[in-house]
Amino acid sequence: MTANALLHSPTTGSAPAARPCGLVTWHPIEGKSRGVVATRACAAGTEVERSPVIVVPATDLLVRPGSLTVFDQYLLHWSDEPGREVVMGGGLLMFYNHSDEPNVEFHTGPEPETMSVIALRDIAAGEELTYDYGVPLWFTPAPSAAPAPPTR
To answer: What percent of the chain is helix, strand and coil (3-state, nearest 5)?
Structure first.
């Protein structure tokens, strides 16, 4: 399996125009190292984060048969256009953990070279935010954590 087959795949779509601020932070998550949590309750459909991305051409990826680089594990699929296949996410995009029952999804845009994170359902303050990576997993997922105490 190539590194490209393991890249996380966001949903293409549009998001609200106003940029979110202060809705997410990161915390240590038991069994997962770290993860992203909501700083306050958010309704389904809320854009909880919008971050810039850095486009990485597939030709710049290192191929190591049989093992992924750390870099490979954090790339996100961007497009099928040559030279714009994957991106490195800014903000906290690289720290959302996987879940088979996600509470957020990633969308490309709405601005050029940005990615938005949208709540799929109502989310409690302190709850870990997770998305479905949409690719065969290269690790054994940890169980979902209970919501943490609200952050200030």
So the answer is: 10, 35, 55
